[in-house]
Fold each of these.
Amino acid sequence: MHKFLKDYGEWKQKSVFECWLTPEAYENMKAGIKRIFKPREDRVRIYRLCETCRKKAFSYGWGELPDDFEEDVIL
């Protein structure tokens, strides 16, 4: 799962990824997770940030967000 998710976002810590996705990339990521997911071994939670939540969030460092993302997703 880790190797797969590295193609969609940045690994932050342990099993946490932060992704900035277009709607199409988001759907592709979910489909890929379903393909490789092992229900008795894995647990995947997807937290989507709405526009209001995104405006309230802040971060330090790590450069700027890409201009072309439409969806914040924390896994």
Amino acid sequence: MTNPELFVGIDVSQARLDVALHPSGETFHVTNDEGGFELLCTRLAALSPTLIVCEATGGMERPVVLASTLAHLPIAVVNARQVRNFARATGQLAKTDRLDALILAHFAQAVRPEVRLVRDEQIRHLEALAVRRRQIVTMLTAERNRLGATHDQGVRIHIEHLIAHLQTLRKDLDRELLDAVQAHPATQHRFELLCSAPGIGPVVALTLLSALPELGMLSRGQVAGLVGVAPLNRDSGRMRGRRTTWGGRAEVRTALYMATTVAVRHNPTIKAHYEQLVARGKPKMVALIACLRKFVVHLNAMIRADEPWRDQPGVAMKPDESVGSIS
């Protein structure tokens, strides 16, 4: 007889991890620290679970995901909204840490999300630096807005000092990011390939390296879906709704959006595609998102082929590159 499948849900909070097993319904908890991770991995390894699921919680889930992956346990990270919708669909309206863990275990059995592959230490370091840089840029924007909103000279001086300090921190992080890239020849090579594309600068290239390490290993549909620019149907019966894009990795999409706004002016391939769409009557925003999708598909192919960017002006849009609207 084959062993019955076992599914595990882990609800992550700041102090502890609530763990539930499905279909047995057994629950337990461990501390959210190295000792707790070791205890959890030892216990789960003995059970040989089919799949473990936890929610994305703003990065708080990363240590336990890394520990589980290094222990060769199959773990997947899922969107909290998906799990909450699943809970409502199954009639579970109450919400506690224990109940959330049980719902996650049931979700693992019913949906079976894809197991997350661990990123190597260098990519994790790049990602941490890139996240911190985005945080500094966000703080800089907030302080500049405050500077424009105040007329008190004493407060303005204080804000100006803080802006100067944040600008220094941003420059330091830029230097650390480039040093981290140059320390590894393979990563440096990928960085140079990305920067060969008109519209892709060092910041966007670093974002792609850290937040989209799968680039070059996916199909055109997969990479568009991962970034969140794949048009999705909204049809029902005789109604044919407008195709829209949503989901995906927001930080990658934001960086590529800014790169695409440059590319539609200075990249012959993307510029030609944009002008074709606008000439056909597509709204400019829809055309821009379609160009973003084309851009990331070309970048994916470029990295896979290990070749620098080659302009292809006038290339007709492929049948599966139909456009929708952004939401």
Amino acid sequence: MSLETMRPNPTWDAASYEDTVDTLAAHRDELTYKVWGGDWCKDCRALLPDFAAALEAAEIPDDRIEEIAVDQDKQGPGVDEYGIEYIPTIVVETDEGEEVIRFVEEETVPPAVWLAQELEAELEAETA
């Protein structure tokens, strides 16, 4: 089931987030984004449309984005397996299913920005 909240925000300005888009685009063929959310959730409605717009601007293939709807009790596919407590939660994985980074609703910057920053930090740590 797809999430209405993952419909890209048409007013999101990719040019204002060039570094974020570039980082996401650089890894478009090697990472998968698993997004847990609910269309009923105010945090999801506030955060996910811009995140979806960033993924669209970075030309992330649809088959690398998995939208997972949860009910108002935050129950749904993969919730227990991934330890999902808050939504939105975005888990970024390698093709081997290894979790690279995770965005959870309480971060202080938008999901795309936070994920791009953490992704850069993670990759720098691997090459150091």
